[in-house]
Design goal:
Strand content: 15-25%
Structural class: alpha+beta
Radius of gyration: 37 Å
Largest sheet: 8 strands, mixed
Number of helices: 13
């Protein structure tokens, strides 16, 4: 059988194309589990017809007058096999299976009666259990058919086998060749079915692995990797954890509203996407976990979900690199955007909220403080709380700003991070 190629259908799974299109008859746009029956039935029927035509040519060329009955019967049975393709074209695979088995049994029985004991035609009975297992979801048939095949073999051997069959008219080497052809044909049929099954399993496993990797990538793009791994192990578990020390980071683009009002929405989204992808790269480099963007505001945290003693220093380095990145940023519609950044250190709680469209979030007084400081710095400035400044120590240049009133809370001592 000529090798065929597997190509995805426009609105469904893969189907057979090219020279072997007949094998995929009726299976278009069907899921692989259902298409399997069509592929098994069509491939088996096609191969049986080709092999039967080969026997017809042999009888016609070697001893046509002697074997006219055999040749005529095989020609008739070859045409009968076309009924299987009619069933699969009408998407009636179980009916096609019954038709194929009935015609096949008739084929084997009559061939055994005509040719005699040495034909070996009963060997093809061994293929039928494999065919049924691949093309039928009715598991009772999987158990019943091996017993029926054994009984059929005994029936053919004890009753229909005739030592005086037509093959006695042929030389021994011809009889041996025909018997070898029957053995090879039965093995070939079983091998074709095994190949179809192996190919189906391989395609299914490959698709499953690709989907798993894709799902993992999507999950890790939404959630931190440790949290994603935990949810994969138990998706119903509650993911919430307290962190005694972390640094919340809020970055806000200065003048975003006026800039965005002058451009089409698609252009604004495209420019922000490019810029924030670059900022994501900075965050990954410094071990910062991006939580989300809120409009033009960038919310991230250091020290979560993996605890880090240097969370404040990493957050400060990220903030300074963010200012350098934005100062050198140029594109067609966005040149040198200026950010103001707020850092606050302290305890936070992080976890996954909700059962649908869930997202990893961080909350607590530390996050609220950083959020309220976000709008205070001037363009290109980083302001930090006194707690963050204490953790940074002498490794960074800080300018005290004194107590600052924040909405809804007591004054907070702030510092400007200069480098």
């Amino acid at each position: 059988m000529e090798k065929t190629r597997n190509i995805a259908a426009p609105n469904g799974p893969a189907v057979w194309r090219g020279p072997g299109r007949l094998i995929g008859l009726g299976a278009r746009d069907l899921p692989p589990a259902r298409a399997r029956a069509y592929w098994a039935l069509n491939a088996t029927t096609l191969l049986v017809m080709v092999m039967t035509i080969g026997y017809i040519l042999f009888y016609a060329s070697y001893a046509a007058p002697t074997f006219w009955r055999e040749a005529g019967f095989l020609a008739t049975i070859t045409c009968a096999y076309l009924c299987v393709f009619l069933c699969t074209a009408m998407q009636r695979p179980f009916a096609g299976l019954l038709v194929l088995v009935f015609i096949g049994l008739t084929h084997l029985g009559v061939a055994t009666w005509l040719l005699g004991r040495a034909s070996g035609a009963h060997l093809y009975l061994l293929v039928i259990p494999v065919l049924i297992a691949l093309s039928s979801e009715q598991r009772r048939l999987w158990i019943i058919w091996p017993v029926a095949a054994l009984a059929g073999s005994l029936f053919l051997f004890l009753w229909l086998y005739r030592p005086e069959g037509s093959l006695v008219l042929l030389p021994d080497w011809i009889v041996l060749s025909l018997l070898t052809a029957d053995v090879f044909g039965a093995v070939l049929l079983a091998a074709v079915l095994a190949y179809i099954f192996r190919r189906l399993v391989h395609n299914a496993e490959t698709a499953l692995e690709q989907e798993r990797q894709r799902s993992d990538r999507l999950l890790q793009a939404i959630l931190p990797q440790p949290v994603a791994e935990r949810l994969k192990e138990d998706h119903e578990s509650e993911v919430a954890e307290e962190f005694e020390e972390a640094t919340a980071i809020f970055a806000d683009m200065v003048g975003f509203t006026g800039w965005a009002a002058k451009l089409p929405a698609a252009t604004v989204a495209n420019e922000l996407n490019r810029l924030y992808r670059a900022i994501d790269g900075l965050a990954e480099r410094h071990g910062i976990e991006k939580i989300k963007t809120i409009g033009d505001a960038y919310f991230a945290v250091a020290g979560v979900p993996v605890r880090d003693r240097d969370h404040a220093a990493n957050a400060a380095r990220f903030a300074l690199d963010l200012l350098r990145l934005s100062a050198g940023w140029t594109s067609e519609h966005l040149r040198h955007p200026r950010f103001r950044v707020a850092l606050a250190s302290g305890p936070v709680v992080a976890g996954v909220i909700g059962a649908t469209k869930f997202a990893y979030d961080v909350w607590g007084d530390t996050v609220n403080t950083a959020s309220r400081i976000e709008h205070l710095p001037g363009p290109g400035e980083v302001w930090v709380t006194d707690e963050t400044a204490r953790r940074l120590g002498d490794a960074f240049r800080l300018t005290p700003l004194g107590p600052v009133e924040l909405r809804g809370r007591e004054p907070v001592t702030l510092h400007r991070l200069d480098g």
